[in-house]
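Dear colleagues,

As part of the handover before I leave the project, I'm documenting each prediction I ran so the next person doesn't have to rerun anything. This entry is a single chain, and its sequence is reproduced below.
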Amino acid sequence: MLPSSWKRDIASGLIIVVPLLVVAYVIAVVYRALASIPYLDTVLKTEDPVLQVGIVLVLFALLVISVGYLMRTTLGDLLETALDKLMNQVPGLRVVYNASKMAVETALSGPEELQTPVKLEVWDGMRMTAFKTGKTTPDGRDVLFLPTAPNITTGYVVEVQADRYVEVDESVEDALTRILSAGFGESRESGIAIDVTEGGPMVREEDRETTDD
């Protein structure tokens, strides 16, 4: 069997390398898809695939910025409402539209959208990490987001009384790290290193001396 230090090194390496490979693969797929758009060379008056992809990305970015600016106006709100109503009247298409819209909204909401981490006791003796959203229901319940591990873009929106959860002295980043790592992540502020042995967790001797002082 591999030593525990080797296992940690392999796990740490995979955590860095695998996401980079996935990102590189996605970029390659997107590049090939953009470069293979029919009649793109004729419209852009160039046969250089790199230049074609660059122009398409610039045009797409300008379109996104323009639409985003429009959505901040009253006219944009009216157009979005009309578009939502139109899409929701088409069977089948409304499912795809609403699902994709929700997915984009979830993906673009970063940790800054989440507020204080809390511990929510879902049933006797079991607690789960949730986040305050800053929203409340008409009857006074607090709205919490309860993410799933290790994919924090999915989860549950729960409405609970304030006495059902406990606020913890923990940053949003540390709480998200624990969830993303499926519970294996270490807090950046942790002062005691723990080695896992066959007999159970063991505090290193130098850390015990430090804490005893």
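Residues 189-213 have pLDDT under 50 and may be disordered. The first helix runs from residue 4 to 35.

All the best with the project,
I.
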